[in-house]
Amino acid sequence: MTIEYPPTRKGEDVDELAGVRSLDPYRWLEDAKADDVRQWQGEQAKLASETVRSWPGFDALRELVEGHTAQRFGSAPTFAGGRWFRSVTAEGDPQAGVVAADEPYGDGDTVYSPEPDGEGTAPFLSWFAPSPDGRILAVGLCDDGSEQNGIHLFDLHTRAWLDNPPRQRLMDAWSGGVHWLPDSSGFFFTALQGDPNDASYQVWFHRLIDATTTRQEVPWLAAASEYRMVLPDASGTRAVAIERLLTPCPVAIADLDAAGNATWRPFVADTDATVAGRLVGDRFIAVTDLDADRGRLVAIDVDRPDPADWATLVPESEAVLRTLTVVGELLYVSEFVDTYARVQIYDRSGTHLGEVPLPGRGAIGEHGYPYPNLVPRGHPGEFWFPFSTLTSSWGTYRHRPGATEVEELQAPAVIVADAVVEDHWATSRDGTQVPYHLVRRRDVDPTAPQPSLLYAYGGYNAPWVPQYPGGQAALVAAGGVFVHTHLRGGSEFGHSWWLGGRKQTKQNCYDDLYAVAEDLLDKGRTSPGQLGVTGGSNGGLMAGVAITQRPDLWAAVVPRAPLIDLVGACREPYGRYAVAVELADIDDPADVRRMLTFSPYQLVEKQTYPAVYLDAGDTDPRCSPWHARKFAAALQDTQQGEAPILLHVWENVGHGWATAADVALEQAAEWLAFVCRQLGIEPPH
């Protein structure tokens, strides 16, 4: 395929980190406001779309993608004031609204409906949180795809928006939006302070009666670049301040007066361990990896927080403990067993009472990072959980204490017809066994090489759980093989699995990926001309590393919303945080040089590369789109083969968490069509 790319100039910039210098010839592409950059980006997007959409199979593939697209993450209705609240995208509406009903999935009435602004664009509903008495609905609205959102308060009795809501901007929905006091008099929330690009966080309290918003001074919180939130307990007399995205910990505790004023004191201090849980009476009950690689459940007395005084309720076992849900007097604990979800039930003393009979082998609807899972959801007296598998989208289920079965409240919207899942293990370079799952149609011959797409992440203590792959299921429906891969750097096998692919051991993550690819090739399940790989965010970094370290393995690679220039990333506050917490000590020259052995932008050289499609959003607050722009420019300049290098930066699209459904469909259709074309997958017409 011969492609004429837009002309791209090279500069002579040099970047420096910890005294280590590296060439940066495309620094000029970082300036998103420059006219020449906007023009170049637009020409690249036009070229990418025209190239992909000229493929005769595009329309059929897009139709398959649309038919297999479902809710990205599982969610359950929220119970408040005797009613059930849920997000719903009504036919004809561009974005989701909120419905309140007497039954979990009853018709109810629409209490928030997205209204287009002056330009005809409706805001994205980032989150919603009804007050406990069901009178006030708080919503977070994002108007540019960036995830940054503002708080709006709607009185459900008067059907009017409240004047003077908090004016602060929230970074995203990961801190749960707002956290109401049990008496509905006010709420805590976490917002950005200063320049939003600085990613600096502060906790606030908003009181409804006089619409005042006051800053919460919690001296024991660490650097402002760390995520943090304040969660009140069920009685409204205490609250905990929890910080850290990857290893959340309750660093401070407060007594609350009737007005929500907090008197803070230190709580769990001087530990890097995860201590993730809830205030339950006079104890903080939590899943921790302190002295337990795969986790244990502990009870911490609010007045005696020293780890020496912690009571172990559930000791470490072969299962990996994940999250705690308090249901009445019971504790429901989710865990992993060989990557699949399991849920155990205990009383508050740690006595095992049984296991929740899950609908299949798959994943509980939880966030990838531990911190967002601390936000209470569902019903206080029942265990509500979304559940999906690699072949079925999210359904909603509940387990009532004492019941022998679970009740299906909402069935999965999509099930991949006649698909099978195979569990496999590959041996990595250092001998570690790495699990992966193959998903294929039953009629696809497992004894012959088949077009296959690897999907992985491998980082930031986030497990890559075996859940429904969304639009990527269209690839399976079209006759391809989807390969869900678990790399070190995640947490599927406990704390050591994360550390085994983090910082000094980060290369293990990529070696694990190559081991899976080579296992597929050695077993004859695919061939070099039929193998692709994709991932988003840190997975986009992984895909970029795969392009530059092992270009021989792949026929097609799609880095999505990628982090690519790890040195340049450190010139931005969020990028600096992301690199420092997971990839390297950015103040150590030796560690920076080690990082340069896998930073994709610095590894580009003249050689034959596989076909590449770079997908990014121009309002991405996490992985700036200039990463994709610079990488595309470098690859297009050095490509010695005939395979195309395409770039599409989508306007008013961020990191993918706040993308309009119609735009997300076009994104998925384009990059999946690119993969199918390169791997030789012909969708049925």
From TrEMBL:
InterPro entries: AB_hydrolase_fold, Pept_S9A_N, Peptidase_S9_cat, Peptidase_S9A, Prolyl_oligopep/macrocyclase
Gene3D superfamilies, per the entry: alpha/beta hydrolase, Prolyl oligopeptidase, N-terminal domain
A matching Pfam family: Peptidase_S9_N
GO molecular function: serine-type endopeptidase activity
Catalytic activity, as annotated: Hydrolysis of Pro-|-Xaa >> Ala-|-Xaa in oligopeptides
Domain Peptidase S9 prolyl oligopeptidase catalytic: 474-680
EC number: 3.4.21.26
Keywords for this protein: Hydrolase, Protease, Serine protease
Domain Peptidase S9A N-terminal: residue ranges: 6-365
Highest taxon, organism lineage: Bacteria
Protein name stated in the entry: prolyl oligopeptidase
